């Protein structure tokens, strides 16, 4: 019998935690990472000196600066603070621009639903077992996704001119690709049991999609849809800065005309807008999850 | 008990069925028949190929060889047969859908997409037929409830109703009662028996309870290593015959255990 009250005699060597080859690999990786980052810093002029000068510029931008010109005149350039809180000139139009941003995000999301659903269904192995078709679906979505929303927006602005509409189209196209992928992944993870049961009953792939897969994944799809709405409202702010309407467009115009205080008011409104949309979408997603 | 049906021609006939997953042979020339009005039980140790054989019949697996005929029609490998339905241990209803909609789904094979793209498109005749099927399993009063709200035994009966709505003549059941309590098991087995006796279905059920198999089936088939090792009238199957089915597995288990205890004895000695 072993005496359990005493520590057992040491019998086996403890295997080393680190092997020499492992240490060499770790050192090589570390050196590689340092070199890559140093090169990136050189290429981007990132240095403590730049950072310090940048700070001064930022300070002037935030709180204003008195500029003395060679002719002896001194002109005060307003900074971002104090904020521009004029109601009818700034805040009320700002609220309208924010609403427009929401409408762009909403339409961009909603208009993409039918096509995203089509791509999701043909790109999921659960709903489509014909390999060439789902490969095509995935390939098309990858290509569409590779182009950022901003680039779509620039193209459509070139085609139809400034305004909210090119923003909606840009968001919708990009969202087809992103939401289609998220949705098809949700469908891939669905329980195969009911799908098989309906296949035994003679259901076609489209019928199993409608009667086994979609009912099972509907809450996930809704959750992802709300998440995309949230993200698309953010994106629509950015699209505005390249000319596709909404609050982003006016942030850009105010910066261009050196009205930093008005711009900062709009930025604060964006912060509130994003937080409100985020809370709203999180709340709705919780609701959907419990259905 | 249904013995008079035995003379009937085989509704389901399986011959020389072979299936391998990679190197592993799972079905090795399996052959058996099930007649209309007959309940046949399949017994066998875990991994003996019971589920795989049923899945080959309904086209969920593609057999490597052999023939499957249903009412004289030869099945195409890997394709579903309209007249063969299957119920599963895990039931596989859509829990979020109503009981009635789940039963209607059994009719999908004979509905075009225009009449089945959504539950709203199901024709009235199909819904009426589904209600009749639900009535057959005694659950017509639960039609509008969500399937997920029903008990396991009730859900399994809904799955049987879905099979009926498919207008199946052959009903396969893979461990239909393994997840159910004794009372619910009894109810489901009675239902299967009555579908054979009163509606003339050919029923083949994989069971892990030899007692249920003896009580509810006309014949018992024993499977081991993907082959049929016995095919006898239920009354003629002795405890010894049944036990022998599971013995190889038991022996393997004992062998593994004794090897393990020998090993630990060695370790103790060493210490
Ligand atoms: N899709 C698959 N891929 C690889 N191997 C499989 C697959 N399906 C089944 N098998 C293997 O085939 C063998 C037989 O499986 P099968 O499910 O038919 O056994 P069973 O008799 O139904 O057993 P159980 O009583 O556990 O349900 C098992 O060894 C299993 O691991
Ligand atoms: Mg099995």
UniProtKB/TrEMBL annotation, chain A:
Coiled coil: none annotated. InterPro entries: MetI-like, MetI-like_sf, PhnE/PtxC. The keyword Transcription does not apply. It is found in: Cell membrane. One of its GO terms (molecular function) is ABC-type phosphonate transporter activity. It comes from the Bacteria. Belongs to the binding-protein-dependent transport system permease family. NCBIfam families: PhnE. This is Phosphonate ABC transporter, permease protein PhnE. It comes from Nocardioides turkmenicus.
TrEMBL record, chain B:
Keywords: ATP-binding, Cell membrane, Membrane, Nucleotide-binding, Translocase, Transport. The keyword Cytoplasm does not apply. GO terms for molecular function: ATP binding; ATP hydrolysis activity. The keyword Nucleus does not apply. It comes from the Bacteria. Transmembrane segments: none annotated. Coiled coil: none annotated. Residues 12-250 form the ABC transporter domain. This is ATP-binding cassette domain-containing protein.
């Amino acid at each position: 019998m072993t005496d359990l009250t005493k520590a057992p005699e040491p019998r086996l060597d403890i295997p080393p935690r680190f092997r020499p080859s492992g240490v060499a690999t770790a050192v090589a990786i570390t050196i590689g990472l340092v070199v890559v980052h140093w090169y990136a810093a050189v290429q981007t002029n990132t240095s403590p000196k730049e950072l310090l000068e940048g700070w001064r510029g930022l300070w002037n931008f935030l709180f204003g600066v008195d500029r003395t010109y060679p002719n002896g005149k001194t002109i005060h350039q307003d900074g971002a603070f104090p904020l521009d809180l004029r109601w009818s000139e700034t805040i009320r139009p700002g609220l309208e621009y924010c609403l427009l941003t929401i409408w762009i995000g909403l339409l961009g999301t909603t208009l993409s639903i039918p096509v995203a659903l089509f791509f999701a269904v043909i790109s999921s192995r659960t709903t489509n077992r014909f390999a060439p078709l789902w490969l095509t679906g995935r390939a098309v979505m990858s290509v569409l996704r590779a182009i950022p929303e901003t680039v779509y927006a620039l193209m459509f602005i070139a085609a139809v001119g400034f305004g909210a509409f090119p923003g909606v189209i840009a968001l919708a196209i990009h969202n087809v690709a992103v939401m289609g992928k998220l949705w098809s992944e949700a469908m891939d993870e669905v329980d195969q049991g009911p799908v098989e049961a309906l296949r035994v009953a003679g259901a076609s792939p489209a019928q199993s999609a409608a009667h086994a897969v979609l009912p099972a994944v509907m809450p996930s799809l809704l959750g992802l849809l709300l998440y995309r709405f949230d993200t698309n409202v953010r994106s629509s702010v950015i699209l505005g800065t390249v000319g596709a309407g909404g609050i982003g467009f006016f942030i850009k115009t105010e910066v261009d005309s050196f009205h930093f205080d008005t711009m900062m008011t709009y930025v604060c409104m964006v912060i509130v807008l994003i937080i409100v949309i985020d809370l709203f979408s999180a709340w709705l997603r919780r609701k959907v999850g419990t259905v | 008990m249904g013995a008079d049906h035995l003379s009937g021609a085989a509704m389901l006939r399986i011959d020389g069925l072979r299936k391998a997953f990679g190197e592993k042979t799972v079905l090795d020339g399996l052959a058996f028949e099930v007649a209309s009005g007959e309940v046949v039980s399949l017994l066998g140790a875990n991994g003996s190929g019971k589920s795989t054989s049923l899945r080959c019949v309904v086209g969920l697996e593609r057999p490597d060889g052999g023939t499957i005929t249903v009412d004289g029609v030869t099945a195409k490998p890997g394709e579903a047969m309209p007249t063969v339905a299957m119920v599963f241990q895990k039931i596989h209803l859509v829990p979020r859908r109503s009981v009635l909609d789940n039963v209607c789904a059994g009719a999908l094979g004979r509905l075009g997409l225009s009449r089945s793209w959504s539950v709203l498109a199901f024709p009235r005749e199909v819904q009426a037929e589904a209600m009749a099927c639900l009535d057959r399993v005694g659950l017509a009063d639960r039609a509008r409830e969500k399937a997920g709200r029903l008990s396991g035994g009730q859900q399994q009966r809904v799955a049987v109703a879905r099979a009926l709505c498919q207008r199946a003549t052959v009903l396969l059941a893979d461990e239909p009662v393994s997840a159910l309590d004794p009372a619910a098991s009894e109810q489901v087995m009675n239902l299967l028996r009555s579908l054979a006796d009163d509606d003339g279905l050919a029923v083949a059920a994989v069971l892990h309870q030899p007692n249920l198999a003896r009580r509810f089936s006309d014949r018992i088939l024993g499977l081991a290593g993907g082959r049929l090792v016995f095919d006898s009238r239920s009354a003629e199957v002795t405890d010894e015959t049944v036990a022998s089915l599971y013995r190889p597995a038991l022996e393997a288990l004992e062998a593994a255990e004794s090897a393990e205890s020998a090993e630990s004895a060695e370790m103790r000695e060493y210490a």
